[in-house]
Amino acid sequence: MFLARVYVTLKPAVNDPQGLTVRSGLRSLGYDAVADVRIGKYLEIRIAGDDAAQAEAAVAGMCDQLLANPVIEEYRFTLEPTAD
């Protein structure tokens, strides 16, 4: 069994209006040092099996096909074995 921790974020060139809103809110609360905020998604996926290479390929496929929009988003993930 493996646990994949997937992080999906907008590409740097893509505008992030949600991030701008959060940055503005933080500044209005007195956090003037906040220079930028980018909003993304975090997912945890448990994958059955003992083959790390297969699990890694499966997670990459999930990200490419469904979890991330390759036009505007990029992703990264970690994969760790679990005792389950």
Your description of this structure?
This protein is an alpha+beta fold and 84 residues long. It has a single domain (2-81), classed as Mth169, Chain: A (2-Layer Sandwich), CATH 3.30.1280.10. It is 33% helix and 31% strand. It contains two helices and three strands, in the order βαβαβ. It has helices spanning 17-28, 52-67, and strands at 2-10, 40-47, 73-81. Strands 2-1-3 form a three-stranded antiparallel beta sheet, with helices on one face. The longest helix has 16 residues, at 52-67. The radius of gyration is 16 Å and the shape is elongated. The termini are close together. The mean pLDDT is 96.
Mean pLDDT: 96
CATH topology descriptor: Mth169, Chain: A
> Into which percentage range does the β-strand content fall?
25-35%
Number of helices: 2
Main traits of this protein?
alpha+beta, 3-stranded antiparallel sheet, Mth169, Chain: A, 84 residues
